[in-house]
Every structure is written in C-alpha cells, then in structure tokens.
C-alpha cells in the first residue's frame, strides 16, 4: 500500500512540476533569440496504471488552447487507428499521453508547426518514463518520438522506420515500441501511397491496444 501511495505522490509531484515548467521561455537552449513566443502550457497525461503510452510530437495550437492532447483531427485519426472511443482515449487509467515536447512550439515561416522544443525531452522524458514502469507498449508517433524511443534502431526516414516495425516491435525487451506515422492530415497522401500500413500495422496496433486497456 505504501508503495502505491509513494508512486501516486511521485506522479502528482512530477505532473505539477511539468505544469509549472517555463524553461523554453525563460532559459531557451539556443539563447535569448529562441525564446518561446507565447506563454507555455505544458500538455501531458501521466498515469500510474495505464499500460499504453502514446508518445507524440508536440501540441498543436488547438491542443494548446484546450489543454487536451490530440484534441483535433489528428486525434480523431489516431483514435480510429486504435479503434478506441474518445472516452477511452482520455481515460488516464488506460492511456498515458506524453509528447516529445510538452508545449505548442509555434509556427515556422510557412505556417507549419515547428519541431518540439529541444529543452523538453532532455529535461523531462527520462523522469517521466521512470515514473511509469507499468507501461508495456509505447506508440511512438512521428519521427522525433521514433528517434528517442528507438535510438540506434531508427531507420533513415519515417517511412523505413515504420515499414520495419516488426524489427522494433518483436524484441525481447520492455516496453515494446510500435513506430507510427503522425496522424496529421498532411500525411493523408503518405497513407494512400503506403497501403501496407493499414493492412499490416493497424491490425497489430488494434489487437495490442485492446488487450492492454480492457
């Protein structure tokens, strides 16, 4: 019982520390000229019980405004990939949701989301993962998550990393990592071109998610 209480306290302390983090605004890694231009709003769902971790990229503007991860069209597609309801998705007993960068990074000159802030993962990620030892499956969504969770096993480019999902998934280590493309509308063309993803990866994704959240 004491161990459960200690873990609850650890998660709550970590959650509060993340919510209060302003490093990307106050002490940016690349210097004063790279300050986050808006007030940070870290978005992450930590859990003591969830066995599935969704490791995304960074919140978009809509998520920044709502404080709810994947509260957008990308989230709808991701939930469809997993065959889970919105209610199930936002149940912290079922899913932990921890992006590579906790805050909306802003837009580049072309209007696309900037990469996750480089301050975030080195500061928080190892602590977050260590606080959730019950995680059995990591859904690594997008290239930045692939790089961190797969390390040297990451292939050259997102397509090859996802195409070689068996090499990453069927290994004798825990937690298992399943690399996924980002569910953004920008990848609709990629999904049409790479039909093997729906045929090969989604059944495995759905089967494993279902077995871990029911």
From TrEMBL:
Segments forming domain Uracil-DNA glycosylase-like: 43-206
Entries under InterPro entries matching the protein: HI_0220.2, Uracil-DNA_glycosylase-like, Uracil-DNA_glycosylase-like_sf
Membrane spanning stretches: none
Domain of life: Bacteria
Pfam families: UDG
Protein name: Uracil-DNA glycosylase family protein
Species of provenance: Neorhizobium phenanthreniclasticum
